[in-house]
Specification:
Blueprint: E1 5-6, E2 26-29, E3 32-35, H1 39-50, E4 55-58, E5 72-73, H2 75-82, H3 87-91, E6 95-97, E7 99-104, E8 110-114, E9 127-129, H4 132-144, E10 149-152, E11 156-162, E12 167-173, E13 176-182, E14 184-187, H5 194-198, E15 204-217, E16 231-236, E17 239-245, E18 250-254, H6 262-265, H7 268-278, E19 287-299, E20 304-305, E21 308-310, E22 316-317, H8 325-346, H9 352-380, H10 384-399, H11 401-411, H12 414-421
Parallel strand pairs: 1-11, 2-13, 3-4, 3-14, 4-10, 7-16, 14-21
Antiparallel strand pairs: 5-9, 6-9, 7-8, 11-12, 12-13, 15-18, 15-19, 16-17, 17-18, 19-22, 20-21
Length: 424
C-alpha cells in the first residue's frame, strides 16, 4: 500500500488515517517543507528563508553526510553561489582547476580544455574541485541563525498527503512523531527519493552494466604523470580510469577487469594492482576509502505533482562523468525557488510552477543526461583506433578557439541555463 496518497478533491482535508495533532501529536505549520539536506535541498532552504518564507528542512541523517559524493563545481554554479557569499569560502577550501583532460595513458597524449576561454561568460572561468559536504556546512551554519529556517536532523519522513491547498507530512524524529503542514513540499531527497517512490512515479531510463569502484589515496599522481590536470579522464590498456584531485587526496574511479567479478575487484590486492598500473611505485598505496557504485540514467516525466515538487537526483540521475549531476540539481533549486518566491512576494499564479518542468526537464534530458552518456560511452570505448580518432577530434576542438569556446559553453552547463531561460 502506498504511504503517499494524492488527494485530489478541492478543499478535502488530510485523510483520517493520518494521526492528528489533537491525538497528542505535535503539529507545526511552515511555508515550504524541504526533504533532504544535501546541496540541492539546502540551497532551496537558504533562498526561501532569505525571501522571508518559513522553511523546514527534514534530514534522516544526524548531520551533513561527509562521505565522498560530488566534488566538481562548474562555473555557473559558482556564479549562483557567489550571490549568497558562498563561492569564495567554498573556493578557499577547494582547488581551482582551469583545465581538464582526456588522456591516453600509454603515451601521455592528451586533449586539454582550458576554461579560461570563458572569461567573458562567467566570473569563475574554471572548475572547482571541492567536496560537496563543505557547502552543506556553510549553508547549515547560516540556516541555524536564520529566523525563517528550521533544521530537523535525525528526522524521517513517513508519509505525505496533500489537498489543493496544503501538504501534510508525517515525520518521526527525536521527539517522536509529528505532523508538519505547509503550502509546498520540495523533494530533494536524492536518487532513492522516498517522496518519488511514495508518489509511485515512473523513473524511466536504465542502469549501465559496469560497476565503478571509487578509491581514494594521498599518492601525488601529479608528480609522476607529466602535465596532469586536476580532472583527468584516461584510457588505459586494461580499460579506463579517471583521476580527480581534491585538496588532500586523489579520487580514482576504477573498473573491474574483464575477467573479474565485482567482489574480486574490490579486494585490497585488486585495488592495489589497479593503482600500480597507473603509477608503479614498488610500495603499497595508502588507500583511504573504497566504495563501489552503479551508474544510472533516469528521469521523471513531470517535476511537479500538485503541491509536491522534485529537484536534483530525486527528479533525474545521470552518469557522474563530467560532474553535472549535483550542479544540475543546484540549477533546479535556483529555478524552482525563483518561482516559489515570485508566488509568495509578487502574487504570481501557481501555474508558474509548471514552467519549472518545461524549463528544467529538457535541459536535464538533452544536456545533462545525454552529455554524461556521451562522456561515459567515449571512455568505455575499447578499440584503440576509435580511441585515437576520438582523441584527435578532441584535440582539434581544443586547439580551435571558436570551437573550444562553443564546446566549453556546453560542457560547463552555461549553454543549458541560457536555453532554459528562453522557455516561456
Amino acid at each position: 500500500m502506498r504511504v503517499f496518497r494524492r488527494l485530489r478533491a478541492k478543499a478535502r482535508q488530510v485523510s483520517s488515517n493520518v494521526p492528528k495533532a489533537s491525538g497528542g501529536m505535535a503539529e507545526s505549520r511552515t511555508s515550504v517543507i524541504v526533504v533532504g539536506a544535501g546541496p540541492v535541498g539546502l540551497v532551496c532552504a537558504l533562498r526561501l528563508a532569505g525571501a522571508d518564507m518559513p522553511v523546514t528542512v527534514l534530514e534522516a541523517g544526524a548531520a551533513i553526510h561527509e562521505d565522498l559524493r560530488a566534488s566538481t563545481w562548474h562555473p555557473p554554479t559558482l556564479d549562483m553561489l557567489a550571490g549568497y557569499g558562498l563561492a569564495d569560502p567554498l573556493i578557499s577550501q577547494g582547488l581551482i582547476t582551469p583545465t581538464w583532460q582526456v588522456r591516453m595513458h600509454s603515451t601521455g597524449e592528451r586533449a586539454e580544455f582550458d576554461l579560461s576561454i570563458l572569461k567573458d561568460e562567467t566570473d569563475h572561468p574554471y572548475r572547482l574541485q571541492c567536496e560537496q559536504w563543505k557547502l552543506g556546512h556553510l549553508i547549515v551554519a547560516r540556516l541555524k541563525r536564520h529566523a525563517m529556517a528550521e533544521l530537523k536532523f535525525s528526522t524521517t519522513l513517513k508519509s505525505v498527503t496533500q489537498t489543493d491547498s496544503r501538504v501534510a507530512a508525517l515525520v518521526e524524529g527525536p521527539g517522536g512523531p509529528a505532523e508538519l503542514t505547509a503550502d509546498w513540499l520540495i523533494a530533494a531527497d536524492g536518487a532513492n527519493s522516498t517522496v518519488r517512490r511514495g508518489l509511485d512515479l515512473p523513473f524511466t531510463g536504465h542502469t549501465y552494466p559496469e560497476t565503478t569502484i571509487l578509491a581514494t589515496t594521498r599518492f601525488p599522481f601529479q608528480d609522476h604523470l607529466e602535465g596532469l590536470s586536476n580532472v583527468n579522464y584516461v584510457w588505459s590498456e586494461k580499460g579506463t580510469f579517471s583521476l580527480l584531485r581534491l585538496p588532500d587526496l586523489w579520487r580514482c574511479s576504477l573498473y573491474p577487469d574483464p575477467d573479474e567479478t565485482i567482489e574480486q575487484a574490490m579486494t585490497p590486492e585488486a585495488i592495489e594492482a589497479k593503482l600500480q598500473r597507473i603509477v608503479p611505485t614498488g610500495e603499497l598505496y595508502e588507500v583511504m576509502e573504497v566504495r563501489p557504485y552503479r551508474v544510472h540514467q533516469r528521469i521523471v516525466e513531470d517535476y511537479r505533482h500538485g503541491r509536491i515538487l522534485l529537484a536534483g537526483d530525486a527528479a533525474h540521475i545521470n552518469s557522474p562523468s563530467g560532474g553535472m549531476g549535483m550542479n544540475g540539481g543546484i540549477h533546479d533549486a535556483f529555478n524552482l525557488t525563483e518561482k516559489l518566491m515570485a508566488m509568495a512576494k509578487e502574487g504570481a499564479d501557481e501555474s508558474l510552477l509548471d514552467l519549472y518542468t518545461r524549463q528544467r526537464r529538457p535541459i536535464a534530458r538533452e544536456e545533462i543526461l545525454m552529455q554524461a552518456d556521451r562522456n561515459r560511452a567515449r571512455m568505455q570505448e575499447r578499440d584503440t583506433e576509435k580511441r585515437l580518432a576520438m582523441l584527435r577530434d578532441l584535440q582539434t576542438i581544443a586547439a580551435n578557439p571558436e570551437r573550444s569556446h562553443a564546446y566549453l559553453l556546453r560542457t560547463s552547463m552555461i549553454e543549458g541555463l541560457r536555453r532554459a531561460a528562453l522557455v516561456g
